[in-house]
Amino acid sequence: MRFSPLSDKTLLYSFQEAKKIEVNPDFIKLLEAEIKERGLLNPHLIEQKLKRIN
């Protein structure tokens, strides 16, 4: 599954929401892989970055 139509901000927000509502762990891994592939951030630091965005 590719998330290329999503903007970087939307991808990060989707990851945050998926973690919050505890969706399928495989889906979260797909989001993490896309984040890493885009070179956005280490997934462990994403929540800190999103707090700054919001």
Which features characterize this protein?
3 helices, 54 residues, 0% strand, globular, mainly alpha
Describe the fold and architecture:
It comes from Metabacillus halosaccharovorans. This is Sporulation histidine kinase inhibitor Sda. Pfam families: Sda. GO terms for molecular function: protein kinase inhibitor activity. It is a single chain. By secondary structure, this protein is mostly helical. It is 67% helix and 0% strand. The chain is built from three helices and no strands. It has helices spanning 8-21, 25-38, 46-53. Helix 1 packs antiparallel against helix 2 (25-38) and helix 1 packs across helix 3. The protein is globular, with a radius of gyration of 10 Å. The model has no long low-confidence stretch (mean pLDDT 79).
Number of helical runs? 3
State the major sheet: none
Shape: globular
Structural class determined from secondary elements: mainly alpha
Q: Roughly how many Å is the radius of gyration?
A: 10 Å
Helicity range of the residues?
A: 55-70%
- Terminal Cα separation, in Å? 27 Å
User: In what range is the share of β-strand residues?
Assistant: under 5%
Let me know the number of strands. Answer: 0
The H-and-E topology, N to C, reads as: HHH
Mean pLDDT: 79
Q: List low-confidence stretches.
A: none
